[in-house]
Amino acid sequence: MTRNILAPLTLGLVLLFLIGPFIIIVAASFSAGETLAFPPQGFSFKWIAKVFTVESFRQSFGTSLFLAIGGTLAALILGIPAAYAMSRYRLPGAETVRFMVSLPIVVPGIVVGLALLRYFVIPAGVPILLALFLAHTALILPYAVRVVSASLANLRSDMEEAAVILGASRIGAFVRVVLPNIRGGILAAFILGFVTSFNQVPVSLFLSGPGVRTLPIDMLGYMEIVFDPSIAALSSLLAFLSIGIVLLAERFLGFSRYV
Amino acid sequence: MFHNRAEAYALALPAAVFAAIVFLVPVGLLLSEGLHGPGGWSLSAYVQFFSEPLNQKIFLRTLKLGLMVTATAAVIGYATAYAIVSMPAGTKGRMIGLVVLPMMISPVARTYAWIVILGRTGIVNEALKFVGLTDAPIRFLFTETAVFLGLLQLFLPLMIISLVSALENLPKDAVPAARILGANWLQVFVKIILPLTREGLIVGGTLVFTGSLTAYITPAILGGSKVLMLETLLYQQVTVASNFPAASVIAFLLIAMSFSANILLRRIATARSGK
Amino acid sequence: MSFLRLDGLTLAYGKTPAVEGLNLDIHRGELIALLGPSGCGKTTTMRAIAGLMPVRAGQITLDGRDITRVAANRREVGLVFQSYALFPHLTVFENVAFGLRLKGMSGKALEDKVMAAIASVGLTPFAQRKTPDMSGGQQQRVALARSMVMEPKVLMLDEPLSNLDARLRLEMRTELQRVQKKTGLTMIFVTHDQIEALALADRIVVMRNGAIEQIGTPEDIYNRPESAFVADFVGFETIFALKDGAMVTKGEPVPVPDAPAGAAALAWRPRAVTFGEGRFEGTVLSSSFAGSAREYLLDTPLGPVKAEVDAALPAHDLGATVRFDLPVATAAALRRAE
Ligand SMILES: Nc1ncnc2c1ncn2[C@@H]1O[C@H](COP(=O)(O)OP(=O)(O)O)[C@@H](O)[C@H]1O
Ligand SMILES: [Mg+2]
């Protein structure tokens, strides 16, 4: 049976292709040499340590963290009610709303970044950080709506009606009955939004100014100037951070159900 | 189903209005900029953009790479997804996890790895030198091949995941039944697997295609200014040339391609569910 | 004086009408069955009474108060959903306590009242269970306790027995009746099963296409259906309209000189058909054995006729020719031929 060898072989090669580069990066982070090379020359923690000493990394990490957390929260605050309205109300124009909130998936990020720069930041004096925040919020909004909609679809709507008949207000029914049952979906949306925002480049490309840059943009800039393993070290650290968050979420929530 | 219209709008409108203000208005303004000539509305920016042979080449290259990445991802995707689906449940879950894992890693890091592999002192060149095939390093970086590999690595997981879920929904005995009726593997694929997983293929294909069109980091790092794609060209037109009409044209092209792919996807999806 | 009154109630989903001009008076303490085929508007009517459905036209009065526009959470109406609609994240206790807590009740008073309600449906040992872990019958009891503990003025149940298996169904039927008699609660329950309606209800409301077809006691409905629709629903299988003193059949009209005055149609249960002798002749299309009786479907010049005879009598083969009669004396006279 050739098929029995062929299938795992294909899978193995594909996994090597997908994950190999990541392993190389991790290995390179522990290099003792001065330039990026593989196999790494010697073993040291110096590049890992260096990451923490670069002032601009610290600053842009803070910016990215703020955008990822703030943007995701804002997207959820906008997205949960919208998803709720579309799933539970007879809403004329629901298709238009759905289209509007899913626009950010269809419009390339770089275009949005440029448009915001050209029409908000430059003429209207909108601070870059605010423009970034708006852009990241809009970017995460489709994911928030989609994931929350999926959880709502799995939740029978007569539960809210039962709550209302038992005396709850509409909002009371939402808080007491709906929210507890879509908690998992909301957390999944949060993680998905966080990772999406944190890794996002094109939207942020044009939206950087003195002291305001997202981490990926900062890394791109750094790479153009310095060719040492510190970017590899930083990339590994970030990757492990993302993977750790996702694994935790998977373990405690079955994250993959929602994505 | 609730019926209070005012409540429904109060819940749904903030998100829609937000998206309109942050997305629709500025992007609309940007697009309209490409439609203004010296004396009012005109297509001169488009004419000018496409009269430049380099721009034509970049446009076609973007399309070509997008299609190539999508096609390659489909072929590899089917083989991989089939291998994954035929595994026992526990292993299957772990394999899916391994496929999804790279998607959680910053594209900057993922693309950066290719420099280590393809660079002048990268793995491939060192290996070639070691075996004695070459004396001087070969240039892999800043070629279409490098961009192709980078994009494929970036978006292949999306295709695999789509095809895995499509294959999982394949009726259990369809393939053995076709085999018993005498079909060879190619016939099984064309007559059974392909039609029944068409939707997954289209979903995956759209994701890979639009992803490849609108990726910035990969062409920027692996293609540089030698292998410009629409996204990197857009960046260059703005930062180097300050040519906003051209940037508007590129933005339109990107949006148009992404939109068409998504509309096609929705068409096909609703055509299926509507019957 | 009626306790719950629906006056010209008209309901619609968007542009599709669901219920039109429905009038109904229900007395305090009555047990009412809403009976009708699927899609006739039973659920919609209940949802309107509960306040979950906007009223297009008409009025709902409960205990002397116009509640047509009162919000659902202020109506003092209970509804047990067909799906039970329990809160999956809460225990049985918390499900039952839900409404009382909203009323501001707490502490010992709350606990006593909730536990009493749980005990009344026999679920005391399960009070701390989460509801998704329970069987269909148990979930149903939780839903019942959750509604009853609120002491609603009217308790409505949407197909309360349809999700249960045959044995549980019988058990719950008795349970419902017992609870209703004990508490004197005004209850409306929906069913599309005539046997259930006949067994349980004080009065039956037969619905058809969003309107009421007939209201009456189980005896009225069972023995004196007013229309062909109701007759068919309660088991009159052979129905012929009357025109100019004759039955309209597939073949020649059959004169019926002794038809009751005002009758628009005559209807026979299979058992009311005289079998083996009489004016008409038919061939046996099918025959089925049902324990004590045997049912024959006859192909006759009048049209198909269904007859039921004692199983002890010798059976007829398929294709055999038999005589039969449709005596006016055993027929139900219908006021409407539709
Ligand atoms: N959510 C809805 N949207 C549109 N039409 C509905 C909806 N629910 C019910 N209907 C229609 O209203 C009519 C009455 O439905 P319903 O009250 O559920 O019937 P029943 O409970 O008697 O089976 C049916 O024709 C049904 O198709
Ligand atoms: Mg119903």
UniProtKB/TrEMBL annotation, chain A:
Per UniProt, subcellular location reads as: Cell inner membrane; Cell membrane
The UniProt record lists the ABC transmembrane type-1 domain at: 61-249
Mind listing the UniProt keywords for this protein, alphabetically?
Answer: ATP-binding, Cell inner membrane, Cell membrane, Membrane, Nucleotide-binding, Transmembrane, Transmembrane helix, Transport
Q: How does it sit in the membrane?
A: Multi-pass membrane protein
Which InterPro entries does the entry link to?
MetI-like, MetI-like_sf
| Residues that span the membrane, as ranges | 61-85, 97-122, 128-149, 186-209, 229-249
Gene Ontology biological process terms, A to Z:
transmembrane transport
Name any one GO molecular function: ATP binding
Could you tell me which CDD domains the record lists for this protein? Answer: TM_PBP2 (cd06261)
Query: Disulfide bond among the record's keywords?
Result: no
GO CC list: plasma membrane
Q: Enumerate the PANTHER family for this protein.
A: INNER MEMBRANE ABC TRANSPORTER PERMEASE PROTEIN YDCV (PTHR43357)
Would you identify the family this protein belongs to, as annotated? Belongs to the binding-protein-dependent transport system permease family.
Identification of the protein by name: Spermidine/putrescine ABC transporter ATP-binding protein
Species name for this entry? Paenirhodobacter enshiensis
From TrEMBL, chain B:
- Quote the CDD domains the UniProt record gives: TM_PBP2 (cd06261)
Q: How does it sit in the membrane?
A: Multi-pass membrane protein
Highest taxon, organism lineage: Bacteria
ABC transmembrane type-1 domain mapped to chain residues: 59-265
What does the entry list under GO cellular component? Answer: plasma membrane
One family name in Pfam for this protein: BPD_transp_1
Major localization class: membrane
Q: Which GO terms describe its biological process?
A: transmembrane transport
The UniProt entry, under InterPro entries, shows:
MetI-like, MetI-like_sf
Q: Which UniProt keywords apply?
A: Cell membrane, Membrane, Transmembrane, Transmembrane helix, Transport
UniProt KW Membrane keyword:
yes
Q: Where are the transmembrane segments?
A: 12-31, 65-84, 96-119, 140-164, 201-224, 244-265
Q: Which PROSITE patterns match?
A: ABC_TM1
**Where does the record place it?**
Cell membrane
**Annotated family:** Belongs to the binding-protein-dependent transport system permease family. CysTW subfamily.
Matching PANTHER family: ABC TRANSPORTER PERMEASE PROTEIN (PTHR42929:SF5), INNER MEMBRANE ABC TRANSPORTER PERMEASE PROTEIN YDCU-RELATED-RELATED (PTHR42929)
Q: What is this protein called?
A: Spermidine/putrescine ABC transporter permease
